[in-house]
Every structure is written in structure tokens, then in C-alpha cells.
Amino acid sequence: MSKHMDNAYPGSNILVVTLTNEESKRVEAQTDGETLKEAMDVLRNMFGAHIPTAIDIVVPRWWNNRFQRGSYSNYPIYGNHQLVRNLKAPVGRVFFTGEHTNEKFNGYVHGGYFSGIDTCKALLEEMRKEGKGGESQDLLLLDPLIALRVTEADDVSGLHKCDIPRRELFLGSTKHGLPEAIL
């Protein structure tokens, strides 16, 4: 898949390859150098020996990442909004969140972030409803944090193209004096 990204990386030409199942596990076990050589062999077989060698390669190792285990969501073309609403609908007191429950940015990290904020708001609303009959209605509201180790002066590649409010990209102490998020 070709990614022409002049808006993010002027003049760049990026190729993206998606591997699944056993092939993705095989490639994850290789070094980046071995994967680059293999990819260049395939490209030269397709387009001829004259094509230039890629200057860099990024190989995500999602299968070996204990927090991902090789998955992200990808809804079918014929999917509809009700599908996402059904996936994120709470079951009793259990709420669901994650990139797969964000209609606009499913499959992306910032989709998971936005989904977490939405779910937190829904959860707090339910807690308020339940608390109306109790002694205390005061709740500790936490500012949402995203764990990036950068300052506002740093340029976060690509994130400025998303509609994430800039203040939410950077860590700092909250109005409640809570420490920074640490992963």
C-alpha cells in the first residue's frame, strides 16, 4: 500500500505492508535488516533492479507486545454506526473502551485515547446518577492524561494533524496535584 503523505512528510514516499497470521509472526522474529532485504528483493522482482534501496524501515512487533498481541480493529466497508454502538454499550456496571469503540479513529492510538475520555464521562455520569440517593455527591474528577515524554516546545510528529486539543498532548501536574502518568 503506498502512502503519499505530503501533508505530514513533504516529498516522502512511504510504502506500507500489512502482514497477518503466521507470516506476521515470521517477520517479527527477523531483524529489521533481514526484513528490509526481503522487502527490497520483492520490490526489485516486481519493478526491476534499478529501484533505490529504502532508507529506513519500521517493523512494529505487535504480536510480541504483551499489551497488543497482534490486534487492532478493522471494520468491514459495509459496517455501520450501530455496530460500534453495540460494541461499546455497557453491560450492567461493566463499561467497554478502546480504539475499537471510537467511530472516527478506530484502529488508531488516539482513537483509544478519545474512547477512554468518552467512557470516563459516561462512567462518571452513571456514578452521579447512583450517588444522588447517597450521602456525598462530590466526585474527584481527574484530568485526562496522555503519556508522552515531551514538552510543549517539542514537535510531536504527525499528532498535530489530528484534532486532539494541544493541551491534552502534554503531561503536567493536574489541578488535583496528581503525578504525571507513567507507562
From TrEMBL:
<dbReference type="InterPro" id="IPR002937">
    <property type="entry name" value="Amino_oxidase"/>
</dbReference>
<dbReference type="GO" id="GO:0046592">
    <property type="term" value="F:polyamine oxidase activity"/>
</dbReference>
<dbReference type="InterPro" id="IPR036188">
    <property type="entry name" value="FAD/NAD-bd_sf"/>
</dbReference>
<feature type="domain" description="Amine oxidase">
    <location>
        <begin position="10"/>
        <end position="124"/>
    </location>
</feature>
<dbReference type="GO" id="GO:0006598">
    <property type="term" value="P:polyamine catabolic process"/>
</dbReference>
<protein>
    <recommendedName>
        <fullName>Amine oxidase domain-containing protein</fullName>
    </recommendedName>
</protein>
<dbReference type="InterPro" id="IPR050281">
    <property type="entry name" value="Flavin_monoamine_oxidase"/>
</dbReference>
<comment type="similarity">
    <text>Belongs to the flavin monoamine oxidase family.</text>
</comment>
<dbReference type="Pfam" id="PF01593">
    <property type="entry name" value="Amino_oxidase"/>
</dbReference>
